[in-house]
Amino acid sequence: MKSRVFYVIAAALVVTAGCSSTPSESDDSEMSPVSCVSTTVIDGPVNIATTVAPITSIIANIAGGTDATINGIVPEGTNSHTFEPKPSDAATLEQADVIFINGLVLEEPTKELALANLKDGAVICELGSQILPESEYIYDFSFPREGGKPNPHLWTNPPMAKEYAAVARDLLSALNPNNAAIFAANYEAFAAKVDALDAAMTTATATIPQDQRKLLTYHDAYAYFAVHYGYTVIGAIQPSSFDEPTPKEIANLITQVRESGVTAVFGSEVFPSPVMEQIGAETGVRYVDVLRDDDLIGEPGDADHSWLGLMRFNYVTMVEALGGDASALKTLDVSDVVKDSATYPQ
Ligand SMILES: [Zn+2]
């Protein structure tokens, strides 16, 4: 195992724009393992660990077609915000050459377990923290500033997901230069699909009456998406504690829904909410409870079981519920650019 790993001078090899998420307080003898820059080169198969399924899918699109192994940690359909890794996840993490996580304080327990078990030369790359400066983090009702956890859902916004893919390509290319041409080609193909999705969502959004481009969601997964496409997030219902809101908060939301004139409010499949049902019933507004932020569609191996498939599903759901025409989205090819060989715990 050790023999396939040797060390090189990192700075000479890695040419990655803006890649310094951890302006380190350490002296130059000890680099932080929390970094999207690799100091290691691997000739043989790369072992990759990831956290939530959408990130696993993005990484699978970039690393697919090589002999890399990709293992997700967070089971699909679980609450990733409160997820605690099992002791047995340490085995996956300690074998990894690179661990891709979202960052923005989403996966702290998994990051801690990874740090405690990290093998020599391996890195933990926080994709979201890498691409978004802290000054652009969004804090809101479900993710209040005083809680210290910004809204982490960058991956529901296609341009940001594309940046995740670019960071992964650059890191994997430095780590495993033998396969750099494959990573580059996969990225180009994936980026084209992300751009097509983005364009289709812009087209579909334009068909929604301007005064209906409003989102009231249970789980607050669309903050960055909303800025990009010009939706107003009129509220998110889930408190930062992940408990149900108080009766007073519910009463306020009912008033807010009535005043906003929205035709639909959105729940999340991962977080079934009787409160949302109540708000829908009391306001006469349609309650759409099928959005999902980190649980891919179908089962591993299904054609739509991908970040692309997940995003299209959510966007079609939103656009149609808000009175728009989703046909630009429905005709998209959302198949992965390469066969997905990642392991997705269920
Ligand atoms: Zn979430």
Question: What is the compact description of this entry?
Answer:
The chain has about 350 residues and is an alpha/beta fold. It has helices spanning about 10-15, 55-65, 90-95, 110-115, 125-130, 160-175, 180-205, 225-230, 245-260, 275-285, 305-320, 325-330, and strands at about 5, 40, 45-50, 70, 100, 125, 215, 230-235, 265-270, 285-290.
What does the model show?
By secondary structure, this protein is α/β, with parallel strands linked by helices. It folds into 2 domains: 2-17 and 30-194, Nitrogenase molybdenum iron protein domain (Rossmann fold), CATH 3.40.50; 199-330, Rossmann fold (3-Layer(aba) Sandwich), CATH 3.40.50. It is 38% helix and 12% strand. The protein has 12 helices and 10 strands. It has helices at 10-13, 53-63, 89-95, 108-117, 127-131, 158-175, 180-206, 223-229, 247-260, 274-283, 307-321, 327-330, and strands at residues 5-7, 40-42, 47-50, 69-72, 98-101, 123-126, 214-217, 232-236, 264-268, 286-291. It has a 4-stranded parallel beta sheet with strand order 4-3-5-6, with helices on both faces. Helix 2 (53-63) packs across helix 6 (158-175), helix 6 packs antiparallel against helix 7 and helix 7 (180-206) packs parallel to helix 11 (307-321). The radius of gyration is 20 Å and the shape is globular. It starts with a strand and ends in a 16-residue tail after the last helix. The model is unreliable at 1-29 (pLDDT under 50). It binds zinc ion (ZN). Zinc ion binds next to loops.
